Amino acid sequence: MQEFSISDACIDGIKIINPFIYEDERGVFVKDFDSTVFIDNGLGDKFVFNEEFFSVSKKGVVRGLHFQVLNPQAKLVSCTRGKVCDVIVDLRKNSKSFGKYFMIELSEDNHKVVYIPKGFAHGFLSLEDNSVTSYKCIGEFSKSNDSNILWNDKELDIKWPLEMINEIILSDRDKKAMSFKEFCDKYGGL
To answer: What's the CA gap between 65 and 46, in Å, rounded?
Structure first.
């Protein structure tokens, strides 16, 4: 049995969550959210999820780097099947880590969950076929405020694990995403 543990990532505000796990001859039971544990670990005094959804992605799919300009959302992200390389970029204009990224592997094997506070762009690369990525979002989604930055922006210089990927698959929207410089020129930060 593994108890909850929550630790800080190298960028202030991002938390790595190792959930409660119980494993026996039947399989595995995972509890990835407990409001009391989260509150006790400084993640706010109230968790109200406005939406929860999941995506199923082929190997090589990149989703992101997505963010909301106004009323940004906080998120809990995990991978319940397969494996993804999850990337979070700090867009908070007054942050010491503005423009820096944090990368973590999320998988059905490690059961890790990442807490992404407001003010970050988020994306991932699917490392296996049919990877299922789950999102619990705090705050309302606003299509008119939804935007994105290029996944392979030269200035961000994200070190994606591309050695195991034959082809990158992007949505039309993500192909047309702005550069980090364009984001800075347009918004200056979140």
So the answer is: 27
